[in-house]
Amino acid sequence: MWFKQLSFYRLNEQSTPDKEQLSAALEKTPFQPCTGLDWFSEGWVPPANHLDTPVFSARARLLVSLKREDKVLPGAVIRDFVELKAAEIEAAEHRKVGRKEKQALKEQITDDLLPRAFTRASRLSAYLDTGRRWLMVDSGTAGKAEALVSKLREALPPFPAALPRTAIAPHTAMTDWLAAGEAPAGFELDAECELKDNSENGAVVRCVRMDLTADEIRQHIATGKQATRLGLIWKERVRFVLTDTLQLKRIQFLDVIQDEASHAGDDSESLFEATFTLMSEELCDLVDALVEALGGLEGEPA
């Protein structure tokens, strides 16, 4: 349940669905395993084993889970079968198998092997905060997050979710915080950062387990380097790495939150609800504070 990464999107107030609308839409495209010549399949599944609907709701937040299954058929395996078949043809017909014929063999062998290939399954969770108008995706990879948003758009067109644009660019703010030796209210500098020179040479400095208030950091900034990643701690409750693309990587919910969740219920169902409620509330508070520290959202009143 605990999100490890975060990509977040702004929702349109007029088009944010409620639980019934979202459930009805996602139930039309449930997950189905890969069959036949499919390379992959994906669809919506209940967010937890004890649930039987694709949407879990708690305090105006809607949790969903997209499952994907991919066929595992390494290229080296296909090449070995192609070479073996080509060798058999050459031995039987006493001729050389050409490039075009090998390509046809490759397509035929792929079709033969695909139905018998192993599969690899993965899940991607996200939740909609209908009150604060955020879509939170448990991914720090833009492509994966966008894939989930695209599936939501297919289910509920046009589903206007957009990447937020802040008044102050993340790289500018992170660089300023490092230069000042302190983060904005509610946040504190952790022990990790990445600084990049935008000149032609493009030198990159990565600092790990280091005091970010050290003079060495400010010297790098004085030479023109800007922060592209910065480790931060939110109210001694959440540790994460902020990127210049406004994503949160390597999120860790610290002991105080873990303890609060562990005492919230005795059975798996109540623990699931308590954990989700606590985590989603914490992440929304964090994102709201982060956006405020970056000068607010462009096009929205402060």
Automatic annotation (TrEMBL):
<dbReference type="InterPro" id="IPR007476">
    <property type="entry name" value="RdgC"/>
</dbReference>
<keyword id="KW-0233">DNA recombination</keyword>
<comment type="function">
    <text>May be involved in recombination.</text>
</comment>
<keyword id="KW-0963">Cytoplasm</keyword>
<dbReference type="Pfam" id="PF04381">
    <property type="entry name" value="RdgC"/>
</dbReference>
<dbReference type="GO" id="GO:0000018">
    <property type="term" value="P:regulation of DNA recombination"/>
</dbReference>
<comment type="similarity">
    <text>Belongs to the RdgC family.</text>
</comment>
<dbReference type="GO" id="GO:0043590">
    <property type="term" value="C:bacterial nucleoid"/>
</dbReference>
<dbReference type="GO" id="GO:0006310">
    <property type="term" value="P:DNA recombination"/>
</dbReference>
<dbReference type="GO" id="GO:0003690">
    <property type="term" value="F:double-stranded DNA binding"/>
</dbReference>
<protein>
    <recommendedName>
        <fullName>Recombination-associated protein RdgC</fullName>
    </recommendedName>
</protein>
<dbReference type="GO" id="GO:0005737">
    <property type="term" value="C:cytoplasm"/>
</dbReference>
